């Protein structure tokens, strides 16, 4: 088989390993203030992250997702243990208020899916100490644009470098059916205001997961062989 045919066969083989993307909205979210989890309609219609500058209104947010149906989709398409996670992202929809202000927000993963995030709950601002296993996944700058603006942040990318928090999140998705994320004020002046899962106008926090099939051993061998021949041809041409 010549190089062109080998590379063509390799590409066809890997084209069959198409990606599958699915999304799920949070089943619960909470705004955690110094007095505890915010109650009433505002506690579930909105999802606020406010820095210490706001006193008794300071808060961090928690979002919890049930991913059982997503994993069932992936298992149906690829077979149980037949898929790998390519990417994980979080989408948030701005639902701004008069107090909304730009600033830093930190995203944390926690494996604690048992603690209640609805009242009564032991959670209380500030975030430190509420989730002993929490690992930071990323930081971003919240910038107010307009209500309805959707922000999407990559939490894990298999093709890129991932910190320990991102790796723990991906491992948890493979092992568990629930995911819990916390959004924490990164500076005292931030006031990021998002739609909650019960918002009447906008989608609440949404987790997006993209997976693809685990490549079979012979597929990997074909790819490596094809890339090897291509590398050899490039070196020979350059000589």
Characterization of this structure:
The structure is a single chain. The chain is 26% helix and 34% strand. With 239 residues, the protein is α+β, with helices and mostly antiparallel strands. Strands 3-2-5-10-7-8 form a six-stranded antiparallel sheet. A four-stranded antiparallel sheet has the order 1-12-6-9.
How would you briefly describe this protein structure?
The chain is an alpha+beta fold and 239 residues long.
Helices and strands in order:
Elements: H1 3-15, E1 20-25, E2 28-33, E3 36-37, H2 41-45, E4 46-50, E5 60-66, H3 68-78, E6 83-93, E7 103-110, E8 135-142, E9 150-157, H4 164-175, E10 178-185, E11 191-195, E12 206-213, H5 217-238
Antiparallel strand pairs: 1-12, 2-3, 2-5, 4-11, 5-10, 6-9, 6-12, 7-8, 7-10
Helix pairs in contact: 1-5
Q: Approximately what portion of the residues adopt beta-strand conformation?
A: 25-35%
SSE topology string: HEEEHEEHEEEEHEEEH
Mean pLDDT: 89
Q: How many domains is the backbone divided into?
A: 2
Total beta-strand segments: 12
Question: So how many helices?
Answer: 5
- CATH names the topology of the largest domain as Jelly Rolls
Largest sheet: 6 strands, antiparallel
Low-confidence stretches: 3-16, 217-221
Keywords:
4-stranded antiparallel sheet; Jelly Rolls; globular; 2 domains; about 240 residues; disordered N terminus; single chain; 6-stranded antiparallel sheet; alpha+beta; about 35% strand
């Amino acid at each position: 088989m010549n190089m062109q045919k080998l590379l063509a066969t390799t590409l066809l083989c890997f084209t069959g390993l198409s990606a599958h993307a699915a999304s799920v909205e949070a089943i619960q979210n909470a705004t955690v203030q110094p007095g505890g989890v915010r109650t009433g309609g505002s506690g579930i219609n909105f999802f606020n992250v406010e820095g210490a500058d706001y006193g008794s209104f300071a808060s961090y947010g928690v979002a919890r997702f049930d991913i059982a149906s997503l994993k069932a989709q992936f298992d149906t398409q690829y077979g149980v243990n037949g898929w790998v996670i390519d990417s994980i992202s979080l989408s948030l929809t701005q639902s701004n208020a008069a107090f909304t202000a730009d600033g830093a927000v930190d995203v944390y993963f926690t494996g604690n899916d048992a603690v209640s995030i609805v009242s009564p709950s032991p959670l209380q601002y500030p975030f430190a100490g509420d989730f002993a296993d929490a690992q930071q996944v990323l930081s971003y700058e919240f910038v107010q644009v307009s209500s309805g603006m959707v922000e999407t942040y990559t939490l894990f990318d298999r093709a890129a470098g991932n910190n320990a928090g991102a790796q723990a999140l991906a491992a948890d998705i493979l092992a568990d059916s629930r995911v819990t994320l916390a959004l924490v004020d990164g500076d005292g002046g931030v006031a990021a205001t998002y739609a909650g899962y019960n918002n009447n106008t906008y989608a609440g926090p949404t987790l997006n997961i993209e997976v693809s099939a685990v490549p079979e051993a012979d597929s990997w061998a074909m790819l490596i062989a094809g890339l090897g021949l291509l590398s050899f041809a490039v070196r020979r041409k350059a000589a």
